[in-house]
Amino acid sequence: MTMDRNSQPGRDSKSTIVLAVECLKGSSKADEWTGDMLQTGDIVEEILIGSGSSSSGSRSTRYKAPFKNGKVGVQKILHNSFKNKETSIVVRVRRGRDGFAELHACVVPEPGYKNKYVLRSIEDPNYAVGFTDRSEAECSELQASRSSRIVSALQRAKLQDGYVAYPWEKRMQELLHVPGSSSFLSLLLLPKAPDGVASRYNDLEDTLARANAWLCASQASGVPVVFMNIQTESLLTKISGETASSTVNAGSLSDLSRLAHVSLYGFEDYHGVDLGVVRAVRLWYAPLCGEFAIEVKIKEDDTKLGFAISRTEEGFIYISSVTDDDENVPSTRSGLSNLYKEATSASRLLVVSRVSNQKVLPWMVSSTGAVKCFDTVSLSQKLSLHRHAKAPILIHVFLWDRALPPPSAGSGRFRSVSRPPVMAALPTPSAGSDRFRSVSPPVMAALPPEIQLTRQPSQNQIQPLPAADIPNGVLENEADIRLERDTAGATSFRFHYFSLPNN
Question: Which domain of life is it from (predicted)?
């Protein structure tokens, strides 16, 4: 049956059913609200199929209003054209009394439907429209309510998210100074168990204080590191017995203030198993002026490397001594000896951060308080194997001075790895009874020229003391204390494994 606006006598033309446009998806720039694009409520006057299709070579088929069987009839037309691979279509519409617009589009199946088709704009494939049956009165109302519908569309508009592929392996190989390894350094501190059986833990403040003490001790001993950030980490574990009875079901709303400071709290899962959450602390730090890579090449006649390594109480590996009386040892040829002398004169330790791109830094503190770090004996054995195998050694060290040029003897073997911003300054040793000097309150002294801050220091920052303010003999005594060699033989160091409590 042909649908004609004048086929039903006695009825107002405004109630005549016509083929109207239904906007299904807006364009990427919301151009459907402009006068050039088709809008919901526009009345379809003409459809041309095959127009602009150069590949088909067929003539355009023209359909004019009124359309037989309305929406259903047009869907059959679109189905036949898609089946015949004539998907190019031009739709002309009427808007109001004398407004007209047209759309050049392609016929595509509507997602989720078998024999239902929609039109996608050639200029913007995001813009999709369909057809529906409406009365002329409804179309007029929709056209008149354009402004309010724009406001409604704005209120309903939502940002869409999604996933995009990313070449992780390529970026990790190309952009990282050490391929496949990050420049982020951290230490995880578990809460201390004073009774030794992990039935009780010290509170969170104790763990934070130990993290602070470890960092200050490292800086005072000459390790060129700066504070970056600190955070708590929740570790899930199974608890039982006295620990469970004192922690499970203790997390009521009235106990939230208490739970904010404890290092262990528990809960009971759906199966009645008592679970505990241990709150550890992760301390993020960074080398003062980044890491430097030094390649130590081995010759056939080398009988020694020319340097020895030791370990600080905080777990850092450092170069403890170099050979001075031989210019033909690997440490001298690579420039490592010169860098060691520069570090010693600056009262710094030449800390080894990586060996063959593997990090050799301390990474955890157990609940007994032991620092988990690398064994100097096994590391010395590995370095000796490099010498026997005549394989070059790639060593990364912490640098303490941004203005320090690489030693001339190894100018071709030095490479800057990272230069993090200076987030905090270093405390300095003092001549007190203890190894370390108290750093509270902060000392707002003038900065030495080798330390450059990216911003002006605030009142909460701790700045290093200039060398002139340090008492004579303090730095020499500190170096004598901390630069004792502990790798003079196979029995100089024995690594103890501290097992974590297993509840």
Answer: Eukaryota
